[in-house]
Structure formats: structure tokens, C-alpha cells
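Record type: monomer structure entry
Structure origin: computed from sequence
Chain ID: A
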Amino acid sequence: MLYWRMSFLGEFAALGTATLWSFGSIFFTLASRLIGSYQLNKIRIPMAAILLLGMLFFTTGRCWPANVGSQAYIYLIISGIIGLSLGDLCLFRAFVVIGTRLTLLIFAVSPIIATITAWIMLGEHLHLFAIFGILVTISGIWWVTAERQLNNNRIIDESASKGLGIILAIGAAAGQAIGLVLAKAGMGDTLSPLPATLIRMAAATAAIWLFSLFKGDTMLTFGKIKNRKVMLLALSGSICGPFLGVWLSLVAVRHTEAGVAMAIMGTVPVLVIPLVIIVFKEKVSLRALIGAVITAAGVAMLFLS
């Protein structure tokens, strides 16, 4: 029984990541409505870094990871900048330009990007059954996320703005996928997920605040910090998302293939359905339920692959 649990540790960690990110997305949505996603991103990433630093000190007595090689640092710093800073920046901007549903629809290709990147960088190979499971999972996610895009009344401009939004969404998917593979390469066989996540988060914090200094809107962010409701929502989302969620995502890629982990973690649009019913009083259609069943079937195939 213990062997069975350990053999699926990566898959369970990926599922835990998706669950945490689902809760985090609700908190971040509420906070973004108050201060905007860009300002929120500059708050949540440093919050997560502080939480990770506290956890590292609590568990090891150290204020910073020890015995980390220069190559690991390079991989993890680039991973943090690409995956957590640039990737999220593209994702949040795409939400604004083309809408959440279309963005998530395009973002669902991230497991494919992760699989190809892991094959090139790490030599990971997936069995045919696992590849089929990834495709089934992506199909379920697409089925759910495409619904609102097909049925809503919002008309998305067919000009350059839509093209930019699509590019941003693809960039977000590539950023998260490549960032995760780089993080796996940085961890290797010796570095544990906690210090690796801290290094990634510190790099992302430095990148996003350097960009803020260059843009000249630093004081605007400090003004938003005075809003206690925003800070509470940001803290709650940071605990679920970039703190515990991102930490678990590295546990996932440590113990299973990057493409498999990315596919399971990509089920957030499906897992969030019961939460949006409770929080935002949204109605769920038969189409969404069918998509959830398809996605669950795909995830089950990944557990069995």
C-alpha cells in the first residue's frame, strides 16, 4: 500500500497543486477586481517568497538554501523569471485583452509544451497511454473553457488586439511549461523542492520589482498595500498559489514526468467549477459537467499510465 502511494506521489502532488490553485484563483480574482492584476502580482510574489523563507528557516534553521551549485542557481533563476514573472505577466495581460476563457483555452496547450521541452532538455519519454491521457485531459479542459467563449455576448476585436492576446496566452503557456522543466533540471537529484521554490520565487520577485522601478509605478503599489481587504485576499491567494501550490508543483515534477504533471495541474478550470458556484453564484451547464467527466477520465489515465 505504501509503495502504491509513493509511486503516484508526483500525480497526487500535481492534483494537490491544481486544487490549491483553484482556491487561489478565487482569492486573486476578488483582489484583482480591487487593485488590478498587475499590481496584485507585485504583492503576491514577494508574499510567497517571505512565506517560503519562513518555512525554510522553520524546517532547516537556515535563512537561505545551502549547498546549491552554480548550475542549479542558473536554471532556477531563469525558471523563476520565465515561469513566475514573465509567464504570469503574459497570462494576466491576456486575461484583459482576450478574456479569461479564451486565454485558458489557449493556455491548455502547456502540457504539450512541457512534454516537448522535457524530452529535449531532460530526455523524458512518455508511454503512448500517458500521451493519450494528456490529450484526453486537454480535451476536457478545452470543452469546459470554450463554453463561455462560444455563448457569451462579448465581441472580441478581430484585429491586432486579438492577435496580441493570443500571443500573450501562448507565451504564458510556454512560460509556465518551460519554467517548470527548467526547475526540474535545477533540482536534479539532490536539491529538494522547498529551497528550489524559494530561489525561483526570489528571482521572480527581483524581476517584477526591477520592472516596476523601470516603469516608475513603485509608489502606486505601496499605496495599494494600505487596503487591508486587498492584503488579506492577496495573502490567502499567496498561501494557496505561489507558496504551497508552486512548492507542490516542484514535488510533482520531481516524482513524475513534466508533461503528466502539467496536464494534471492544468485542470484548474474544471476544479474551480464548484468554487465559482459557491462564491460567484454561477450556474453550471451540462456541457461543463461533461467536460469535467472527460477531464477526470484523462487524469485517471495519467495515474494508470
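Annotation 1: The mean pLDDT is 88.
Annotation 2: The two ends are 18 Å apart (CA to CA).
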